[in-house]
Design brief:
The chain contains 9 helices and 12 strands. The chain has 316 residues and is α/β, with parallel strands linked by helices. The longest helix has 24 residues.
């Protein structure tokens, strides 16, 4: 059966899907709203299904069919642009927009460095980071909001294609005046802190990951504070409210509270967190996203002083 839809219709669909608002998309595309509505209607007629759910007060939301079309259209539209450039004998430099999800605790010290390296290599690509927790990033991948996400492995099912960039073991942080802070190179055990108050980072998946460590050792923490902010945890610890468990080691020991924390390595055999690049299920990766992946691989390889990467290129 013959099928016919145009590149213009697909580009219109992409803008509406991204903005979730017909009026805003019409302004961005510099077309009338009726032209845009007509193009979307013809696409829905062509595919024989609704692509959007119309919400009177909240704009538009993609239907399951719309999500599948969005995931499949990104690489298709990029190839169309490259074909146009090739016919006109123009440079095939990567261009356009790329939305990347990033886990909030990783964003402050990973996003700027990766972005700087990527923009130096591909200046015509505009990268937008979609920051969130593990669950919101997982949903953003399912909804086609971002093409890939830099996040932890927690809560990411095996159905999500991913590439492991780094395995990060847990460590304890204590205040600078804690007795064990005097020997920061000495490994400690979680059992050393059994009588001290514990500050728990309360994020979905992260909370259970840390509490499971105590269960594995047959001990129970004396939880004093439960907070959802990464920097809040560090500030509480810096002022002597207790100790905590984290994974990412920041280059600065200073906290927002003005105090300092000291990271201590653990002698216990506890599971590391995997920092991964995760892609939507069933999506064909665009060249822009593949280029972003390679920049991330180089940045993480350089950051680990040449240590081998966990996971191969065939994991995506």
């Amino acid at each position: 059966m013959n099928r016919s839809f145009t590149l213009v219709q697909m580009r219109y669909f992409g803008a509406v899907a991204r903005l979730e608002n017909m009026t805003a998309a019409a302004v961005e595309l510099n077309v009338t709203q009726s032209t845009l509505s007509s193009a979307i209607a013809r696409l829905e007629e062509e595919f024989g299904t609704s692509l959007f759910t119309r919400l009177s007060s909240k704009g538009l939301r993609l239907t399951p069919s719309g999500k599948r079309l969005l995931l499949g259209s990104q690489a298709f539209l990029e190839e169309a642009d490259l074909l146009y450039q090739a016919v006109r004998d123009e440079s095939e430099a990567l261009a356009g927009e790329l939305v990347v999800g990033i886990y909030s605790p990783l964003a402050p010290f990973k996003a700027p460095v990766i972005l700087q390296a990527f923009e130096a290599a591909h200046p015509q690509v505009k990268v937008t980071f979609h920051e969130g927790d593990q669950e919101s990033l997982r949903q953003a991948l399912l909804d086609g909001v971002c093409e890939l996400a830099l996040m932890y492995d927690q809560g990411v099912g095996d159905e999500f294609p991913r590439r492991v960039l780094e395995r990060v073991p847990p460590h304890v942080i204590v205040s600078a005046d804690h007795p064990l802070a005097a020997t920061p190179d000495k490994l400690v055990s979680l059992r050393d802190f059994i009588d001290e108050p514990f500050i728990l980072l309360d994020l979905k998946y992260t909370r259970d990951y840390y509490l499971d460590m105590f269960r594995q050792l047959g001990i129970r923490p004396s939880t004093r504070h439960v907070v959802s902010g990464y920097e809040t945890v560090r500030s509480y610890v810096a002022l002597g409210h207790g100790y905590s468990l984290l994974n990412q080691r920041l280059t600065s020991v200073l906290t927002y509270s003005g105090g300092s924390v000291v990271p201590l390595g653990l002698s216990n055999d506890l599971p590391p967190i995997e920092v991964s690049l995760v892609r939507p299920v069933g999506a064909n990766p665009t060249r822009k996203s593949l280029a972003f992946e390679e920049v991330c691989v180089r940045q993480y390889a350089a950051g680990s002083a040449g240590a081998p990467l966990a996971g191969g290129a065939d994991e995506l």
